[in-house]
Amino acid sequence: MSETIVRLALDSIRDSRGQWTVEATVELDGGASGRAGAPSGASTSHFEAQAFPDGGVPVALERFRSLVAPRLVGLSAADLGSVDAALHEVDGTPNFSRIGGNTATAVSVATAIASARARREPLWKRLARPGVEGRAFPAIVGNCLNGGRHAIGGPDIQEFIAFADGPTPDASIDAAVAVHRWIGEELHRRLPTVALGRGDEGGWVAPIGNVDALELLARACDAVRDATGVPVYPGLDLAASEFFRDGRYRYREQTLDTDGQIGFVTELVDRYGIRYLEDPIEESDYEGFARVTAEVGPRTLVVGDDLYATSPARVERGIAARATNAVLLKVNQIGTLTDTMATDERTRSAGWSSVVSHRSGEVPEGWLAHVAVGLEARALKCGVLGGERVAKLNELLRLGRATP
Length: 404
Ligand code: PGA
Ligand code: ZN
Prior knowledge:
Elements: E1 5-14, E2 20-28, E3 33-37, H1 57-72, H2 80-91, H3 101-118, H4 123-127, E4 139-146, E5 159-164, H5 169-190, E6 197-198, E7 204-205, H6 210-228, E8 232-237, E9 244-245, E10 248-250, E11 255-256, H7 258-272, E12 276-278, H8 286-296, E13 301-304, H9 312-321, E14 326-329, H10 331-334, H11 337-349, E15 353-357, H12 367-374, E16 379-381, H13 387-401
Parallel strand pairs: 4-16, 8-12, 12-13, 13-14, 14-15, 15-16
Antiparallel strand pairs: 1-2, 2-3, 4-5, 5-8, 6-7, 9-10, 10-11
Helix pairs in contact: 1-2, 2-3, 5-6, 7-8, 9-11, 12-13
């Protein structure tokens, strides 16, 4: 079936924080179409694509109409690489600041969905390298307790995570949900008069300190592992750039220099059996990351998010520095699926792991699960609770249950 793009549209929609973002619709001449929305971050990296041009979503919609749609009509969705290259060409900046990284993301994903539909194949298959069978399912990185920029009144550390590495999506998701529930019950027991809330990514928010929160998480993981036999272990996303100012890591409880931060984090890894450690060091310090990785890399995934911003060039530098052993992939940090797949390729060729990730402001869509399965990612980071998170988990469940 022909896959020529005949019509494209871009519209404004709300994300899970109630802020405006964009969704693209792409129609092909054979009648197939695809639609996808783009998420938005709050604790963004200095090195990521600009989500919207200056002026925000209205300017993004106008530039789409005047620049993007006319250039893309007539291209073939069968060649996603050339569609994504055309997005770069009309933008003409290194960080999509003219058309907006979210426009690029929505168009790139909607094009891939339309192409998959035209071929009557699932999206994961459309994105997969030859030979990938779609049966290697990612572990779940499930945010259970929120802090930092995603929570009001919580710890400084941004995310307390259940890293659930079960044999099936069903088993991993069960375990992540159980850890989330255990923490909620324990917080309620401990703080019976305090009103508990949930943060931007669906984890609990409570007035507790960083180490208390980690202790609670570790006990929850122990309890769920014992009860279910599913390997589920504590993880953290420190999002350390968010509390790094004037050369120091400034927690409410302590201020640390780089040596102090490395000592603090590596001790936590060993004391609490952390198996997933994201952004323990601020985003420009490759060497600091490398020191953490040298220390704990054999025992835990050390994941660069703000450090790499899904950029192949930054990952290249990270590989040379042995900065981490895993890379977080967020499509709208770099702008297109083709760029994301290039970063994944580079990550894989170094023998490192890829983790496909949501953003804190999400759309209630499931396509991210297909990206994780198609790329055979080591893990899918998409939270545990909240409709926009569950949309991805449910899509992964469906893929896990589909007969080959
Ligand atoms: P975000 O952060 O707010 O930029 O989406 C999520 C993360 O740090 O992993
Ligand atoms: Zn992060």
